[in-house]
Amino acid sequence: KAGVTQTPRYLIKTRGQQVTLSCSPISGHRSVSWYQQTPGQGLQFLFEYFSETQRNKGNFPGRFSGRQFSNSRSEMNVSTLELGDSALYLCASSLGPRPNPPYEQYFGPGTRLTVT
Amino acid sequence: DAKTTQPPSMDCAEGRAANLPCNHSTISGNEYVYWYRQIHSQGPQYIIHGLKNNETNEMASLIITEDRKSSTLILPHATLRDTAVYYCIVPSKEGNLIFGKGTKLSVKP
Questions:
Q1: Residue of A25, A6, A18 whose CA lies nearest to A88
Q2: Which residues contact B58 (CB under 8 A, 6 or more apart)?
Q3: CA nearest to A57 within chain B
Q4: Among residues 85-104 of chain A, which lie with CB inside 8 Å of chain B?
Q5: Does the pLDDT at position A26 exceed 80?
Q6: What is the pLDDT of residues B32-43, one digit of tens each?
């Protein structure tokens, strides 16, 4: 079974621009979560989607948004990019929504975003 | 904040068992413990999870103390490819993974 895929793998943007990242979950998985990883803050939860609905959201500004499509694929968008948004953005998929019976999450390789 | 405490780093000789401890003294009765690892610049990899009983899969064993305040992840025969940061996680009440700093395991030849 194919794993979680994320595109693009690397991206360079300038301050003020916006960016859209894409995630395709494992076939049959309906929950998609997004995380940001930086050297200073570590891995931080952004949001979770299930059945095209955002179920949980982390402590990030409104510039960070996402959506999920009917085929469970998900996108996240960051508007008005700041230097501090430079990070590895990780997507994870699981069978179902949380906090129901523990569904382990499977992570993609991430998108490395550099903001200059 | 993360609900777990782990040592920042550990070394292990190749071929020996790696025992990674984790304290989760505030865990409640229905909260699971998850372990993930992250090899440099890759996405985290799920290893194992458990509630009360010890668990074993093809990757590792998870030993949870009877009072559930701590657990140990055991890699029975560590290889160089097991060098990674290992995260012990008790999810939030919403079920979100809250990553701490983890334990950096270095497997040495």
A1: A6
A2: none
A3: B96
A4: 88, 90, 92, 97-100, 102, 104
A5: yes
A6: 999 999 998 899
